[in-house]
Amino acid sequence: MTTDGSAASVSAAAAPDRTDGRSLAARIVGSSVGDRIYIAAITGFALCVPLLLALIFYEVAVAGWPAFREFGFGFLTSSNWDPVHRQYGAASAIFGTMVTSIIALVIATPLALGVAVFLSDYAPSWLRQPVGFLVDLLAAIPSVVYGLWGIFVLIPVLRANVMPFLRDTLGLGATPFFRGPAYGPSMLAAGVILAVMVLPYISAVSREVLLAVPRSQREAALALGATRWEMIQKAVLPYARSGIIGGVILGLGRALGETMAVTMLIGNRHDISASLFAPGYTMASLIANEFSEATDDLHLSALMAVGLTLLVLALIVNGIARWLVWRVARKAGGTP
Amino acid sequence: MTRLLTLAALALAGVSGSAAAQLTGAGATFPYPIYNKWFSDYAAKTKVEINYQSIGSGGGIKQIQEQTVDFGATDGPMSESEMSKAKGGPIMHFPTVLGADVIIYNVPGITKSLKLTGPTIADIFLGKITKWNDTRIATLNPGQNLPNTDILVVHRSDGSGTTYVFTDYLATISPEWEKTVGRAKEVKWPTGLGAKGNEGVSGQVKQTPGSIGYTELAYARQNSLAFAHVQNSSGNFVEPTIASITAAAAGAKLPPTTDYRVSIVNASGKGAYPIASFTWLLIYRNQADAAKGKTLKDFLKWAYTTGEKSAAALDYAPLPGDMTKRLIARLDSIKTP
């Protein structure tokens, strides 16, 4: 097993010599031809994934191009969606997608972090598994079931209790964000259901990252006299920051594309409104609602253009997330 | 062992195959319950399996244009441009049953059914009448204690034949609706929330006090929702019932050469319900496959004679008797090789 011996055997096998007396199987297994085939196959499989993404992008872009050609940049800035008069503008859908996703993250991130910190640092070890399992189970509930629960449970509660409380009791009705009649289906309702759907993703990733923080970090902080909460705040969370951001972005990705639960709760109205009580629209629910009955070519192309916009938005969001994580990791690596 | 498996496989193959043609169809969701019953009754009688996918009228039209199914089904008739895209030649529309859009509402405190006229409904859905105790509604309903609450309009968010019939009616009786909104399976609604599917609209209205919406009669009945009596072209306020919907088709007075791609909204006749419509099967005039063509004609003949009898039990209105006779005669126009 010397270096010389292995080098010699490699050079002997590299020669494409058919008369060296070994059987075919031994030759394929040991020779670099086999290695080359193996590497080619693995590379092929690996390239399939970006190739598939490029293909999806290409097909959606080609199908959506007529709408962009017809309406230009106005497709992204106009909220006039009128199939009868063949006018399509996706601004309300883009606005609704972003607002509901932001509401979902604002509600879900503190909750998920709370769950993660509790499970990693405060919970007794016999409690960790069951609670963690239950939180992860939230991710297994189908979207339609969330929508049904939203219609029958969440919306009545929002309409009767939460929205009047926010608007009247807390006086937030004076701001433009909580104004108007509380029908129930609204961007707030969609945001809340998205928060519930996104919470298990953020919580699962954060929990793993927090558990991966080395004990030495925690023990060092405690040794320096920090309280438990100070230890978490100053030693654990900064260490885990990039991973937590990664989890939040994962949740954001799910929120951007979520369709069924959102379309059942958002009110499906092409309006851009500052008020969270107002109904809105998202890109995914627009496509889901109108695609099966759209027969006009321009209508189909407009829906594909909305799909392309959603793809590009998801890519941009993921790009920003990667850049943030890279920046945080670089800064963390630079600190002494 | 392998011989036994091969014999078993062959036996199963022999049992599952049948001599009569299997048919596939796709399209409208509205008539799915009655088609389901027809197909299972027909299969019990003749062993012909007909497979139907309720993917929506738009999907049904696309599939029959591409000839990926043997027949399509739609709640809204095909337009000229859609017919011209059909790859197998001219398509014939055969109405099967009648459906109606009913105006459902959730107004706490009133005791009897509301009476509404066409222009009033148009103004509500245009957003011009915003409160339940508006004089225009109050004068039609004297003695009813209408509350001073906002009207919340609920419409369909997805495209549908139900929307087509409703907007067709509104465009017929309201020139402003025809100009600003138009008639289609999907429109830009001036006001209100969108809910997905008939069940979405019914659920939303049931849950939200002060709301008004439109849905098929079957959904309104099954959800025990109150629905309005609508004034027809003769001036009578008609309740949507099986009889009044069939009367709408009878009152349509179609010419003998009609291709049945007609709208029967606002039909004449004392007892006709004004927001009614056919639902159609789409069949190529020139059938490519002789066996399938014959099976289609036999099935339709059965549907028009026996099938229509089971329509009312499922909350669908059957076609009038003389219309089914003419349609059976019209089946002869389908040419098989």
Question: What would your notes on this structure say?
Answer:
The complex is a heterodimer of chains A (336) and B (337). Chain A has 336 residues and is an all-alpha fold. Chain A is built from 13 helices and no strands. Chain A has helices at residues 3-14, 24-30, 32-71, 74-77, 91-122, 125-137, 143-169, 187-212, 215-223, 228-257, 260-265, 283-290, 297-334. Chain B contains 13 helices and twelve strands. In chain B, the strands form two sheets. In chain B, strands 1, 2, 3, 4, 6, 7, 8, 9 and 12 form a nine-stranded mixed β-sheet that branches. A three-stranded mixed β-sheet of chain B has the order 5-10-11. In chain B, strand 1, helix 2 and strand 2 (50-53) form a beta-alpha-beta unit. In chain B, helix 12 packs antiparallel against helix 13 (321-330). Residues 14-19 of chain B have low confidence and may be disordered.
Supply database-style keywords.
heterodimer, A: 336 residues, mainly alpha, 75% helix, flat, B: alpha/beta, nine-stranded mixed sheet, three-stranded mixed sheet
Structure at a glance:
The complex is a heterodimer of chains A (336) and B (337). Chain A is mainly alpha-helical and 336 residues long.
Major β-sheet annotation of chain A: none
Backbone structural class of chain A: mainly alpha
Please identify the oligomeric state: heterodimer
Mean pLDDT of chain A: 86
Distance between the termini of chain A: 42 Å
Q: Number of helix segments of chain B?
A: 13
Question: What's the topology here?
Answer:
The complex is a heterodimer of chains A (336) and B (337).
Chain A: H1 3-14, H2 24-30, H3 32-71, H4 74-77, H5 91-122, H6 125-137, H7 143-169, H8 187-212, H9 215-223, H10 228-257, H11 260-265, H12 283-290, H13 297-334
Helix pairs in contact in A: 2-3, 3-13, 5-8, 5-10, 6-8, 8-10, 9-10, 10-13, 12-13
Chain B: H1 2-16, E1 23-27, H2 32-46, E2 50-53, H3 57-65, E3 71-74, H4 80-84, E4 91-106, E5 115-116, H5 118-126, H6 135-140, E6 152-156, H7 161-173, H8 175-180, E7 193-195, H9 197-207, E8 211-216, H10 217-222, E9 226-227, E10 229-231, E11 237-238, H11 242-250, E12 276-284, H12 290-305, H13 321-330
Parallel strand pairs in B: 1-2, 1-3, 5-10, 6-7, 6-8
Antiparallel strand pairs in B: 3-12, 4-8, 4-9, 4-12, 10-11
Helix pairs in contact in B: 12-13
